[in-house]
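Pasting as-is:
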Amino acid sequence: MTVAAPPRLLHIFATFAVGGAQIRFAALANHFGPAWQHAVVAMDGNTACCARLRPDLDLRFPAPDIRKGDMIGNVRRFRDALRTLRPDVLITHNWGTIEWAMANALVGLRHIHIEDGFGPDERDRQIPRRVWTRRLVLRRATVVLPSRTLERIATGTWRLPRRCVRYIPNGIDLTRFDAARDPGPSPWPGEGPVVGTVAALRSEKNLGRLMHAFARLHRQRAAPARLVVVGDGPERPMLETLAAELGIGAAVHFTGHMAEPQRAYRHFDVFALSSDTEQMPLTVLEAMASGLAVAATDVGDVTEMLAAPNKIYVTPRDDATLAGALGALLDAPALRRSVGDANRAKAEREYDQATMFRTYAELIGGIH
């Protein structure tokens, strides 16, 4: 009996730095191992997420000629690359890889496009040129969306046929965020409950808003509290300066990047998200899996993701209302624990990683 070869998947990322889409790919690739063969193109040359991949994977990194700003030339070069590589499935990620989708219109490979969200330039409205490009180029692809908000945009604004749109929520390894574990002593100095966040320190995450919200709490509450920021990025120096200027420098702790952030979540009392734009943020799933209550700005699917008792702590995008939500949870330990328990239960029902694995296996194929 002839055994079918594993399908050859070509994944295109604008960057293969560590981020939500890359972490999801790593989880899928590690889980299915030799069932799939992978080639990954990192358009900016950054392959930092390789550190999360199993060393025994069948994985290559082709390096096609990519010239920033040369759309017509790139489409021709990517067409030639697709004809040379001949993957069984082309998998593109987000707007930054749209030229590959355009090239595939000339080749006709089976195409899956995964859209995780938008940058700051599309925070409040869709750019018409991009709407029309997606509408024309993605009509023959299977378009995977991890959020209901994106699903509505794809079928409404982009007017993609319903038959080609798939909602597949991100999943999480719940066992890594076991809320029942005793966290032990806090690793951060100071007193009082901990407001924690995990984020890349970039402009769209708007950590400045969280700093201002926490400074309001610092002035209004008699009891002390701490703010812990897990993550790194270009805005860190500005944020450290801002914390000092707001008079909260001693109460704010920047940890830098943590390879295993679940260890930090165990020491948080409340999770905060202050972003200007998100869709289905992985960090909110991690907070839910950790049994935490969440105070967050109302972006993307955040309200839909959270358990019903947590929804009232989702606020408009301003520091005053975010401070109010944080304060309400900090001042009521029993309440925040019950809200956190409800979030954990919802994560178990709807966002277990095993469900995501099964759905992608059915979509991509080749799993025996």
